[in-house]
């Protein structure tokens, strides 16, 4: 019973000490006028947004209300930070210091010094932004160059043979669509796919497919332009990077489909917050170029990856 009593007493005493520490921290906040400092900081943020708000008074009023509503959370963060980094003894010694002549002067001038520092920082940034942009321009240009066709195309790039390497058209792909303009056809499984209007996916596509469960989509882009598969890869990636930089290239190399060598590129990309998986074929026959682009969501890929590959493997050149 005695031990239980002492345990309870210890807990109560600890909570009193903790509360005393918090109260002392609040005294420091009051002495140093953190309210003014916080006000200065938030006003500085408002100045940053003021230009983007383009003088819209209604939005500015909303921002001021937002500032007022969130101010308590800012002060709570100051208390938590002091409590984390300083001991009870540290806090007491701070209070003793702020009771001295120099301490009182420091506490009085801290908000003003903070405001002057923020103003100086804003002025420096405003007057040096052009210099910063000039310094960053070559770096940004070099970074952007990586995503252009010129940066992605390597005429000497070598591709390995993927494993498995040899594929044939699946026997269950009993339906066929033949291009009226170009020398190719596609056998597909009517139990898995149907043809759709390409205006729904890509108006420049020649043929488009949709799986019956709407999990897989495919487009065939055929052109009479002359290019090789390395150029096709560069074009495909530069087009992808123009809409998203969240691209990860997976398996990349040659396969043999019905005796014809094709460049196969697998990749993942995030478009408008949607994670997609691509299984693409690129080929450069005598009559031009062809891209067979098949995709589904990353979530659907485990169940749809097989029929994606089966659709691609229905491609035949005439």
Characterise the protein shown here.
The protein is an alpha+beta fold. The protein folds into two domains: 2-145, no CATH class; 150-317, Protein Transport Mog1p, Chain A. It contains eight helices and eleven strands. It has helices at residues 2-31, 34-53, 57-85, 88-98, 101-145, 149-152, 229-241, 301-312, and strands at 161-167, 175-178, 184-188, 193-195, 207-211, 216-223, 247-257, 260-271, 274-283, 289-297, 315-317. Strands 1-7-8-9-10-6-5-4 form an eight-stranded mixed sheet, with helices on both faces. Strand 7 and strand 8 (260-271) form a beta hairpin. It starts with a helix and ends with a strand.
A few lines on this structure:
With 318 residues, the protein is of the alpha+beta class. It has two domains: 144 residues, no CATH class; 168 residues, Mog1/PsbP, alpha/beta/alpha sandwich (Protein Transport Mog1p, Chain A), CATH 3.40.1000.10.
The fold-level CATH name of the largest domain is Protein Transport Mog1p, Chain A
The tally of helices reads 8
According to CATH, the homologous superfamily of the largest domain is Mog1/PsbP, alpha/beta/alpha sandwich
User: Given the helix and strand composition, which structural class is it?
Assistant: alpha+beta
How many strand segments? 11
Beta-strand content bin: 15-25%
- Estimate the global geometry from the Cα principal axes: elongated
> How is the biggest beta sheet arranged?
8 strands, mixed
CATH class of the largest domain: Alpha Beta
CA radius of gyration is 33 Å
Average predicted confidence as pLDDT:
84
First and last CA, distance: 95 Å
Can you give the helix content as a percent range? 40-55%
> Which CATH-level-2 architecture of the largest domain?
3-Layer(aba) Sandwich
Q: What is the helix/strand order?
A: HHHHHHEEEEEEHEEEEHE
Counting structural domains, the number is 2
Q: Give the uncertain stretches in residue-range form.
A: 1-17
What strand order characterises the main sheet? 1-7-8-9-10-6-5-4
């Amino acid at each position: 019973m005695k031990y239980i009593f002492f345990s309870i007493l210890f807990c109560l005493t600890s909570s009193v000490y903790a509360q005393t520490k918090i109260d002392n921290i609040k005294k420091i906040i009051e002495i140093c006028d953190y309210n003014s400092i916080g006000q200065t900081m938030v006003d500085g943020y408002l100045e940053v947004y003021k230009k983007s708000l383009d003088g819209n008074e209604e939005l500015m009023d909303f921002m001021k209300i937002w500032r007022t509503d969130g101010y308590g959370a800012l002060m709570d963060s100051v208390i938590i930070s002091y409590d984390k980094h300083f001991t009870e003894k540290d806090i007491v010694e701070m209070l003793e210091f702020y009771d001295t002549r120099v301490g009182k002067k420091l506490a009085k001038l801290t908000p003003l010094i903070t405001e002057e520092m923020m103003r100086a920082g804003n002025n420096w940034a405003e007057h040096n932004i052009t210099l910063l942009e000039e310094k960053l321009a070559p770096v940004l240009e070099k970074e952007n160059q990586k995503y252009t066709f010129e940066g992605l195309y390597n005429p000497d790039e070598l591709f390995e043979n993927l494993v498995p390497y040899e594929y044939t058209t699946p026997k269950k792909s009993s339906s066929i669509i033949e291009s009226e303009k170009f020398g190719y056809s596609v056998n597909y499984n009517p139990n898995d796919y149907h043809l759709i209007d390409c205006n729904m996916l890509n108006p420049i596509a020649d043929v488009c497919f949709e799986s019956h469960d709407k999990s897989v989509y495919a487009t065939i882009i055929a052109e009479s332009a002359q290019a090789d598969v390395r150029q096709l890869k560069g074009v495909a990636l530069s087009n992808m990077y123009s809409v998203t930089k969240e691209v990860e290239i997976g398996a990349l190399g040659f396969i043999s489909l019905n005796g014809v060598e094709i460049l196969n590129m697998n990749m993942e990309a995030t478009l408008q917050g949607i994670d997609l998986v691509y299984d693409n074929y690129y080929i450069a026959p005598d009559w031009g170029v062809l891209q067979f682009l098949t995709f589904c969501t990353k979530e659907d890929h485990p169940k749809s990856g097989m029929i994606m590959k089966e659709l691609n493997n229905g491609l035949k050149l005439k």
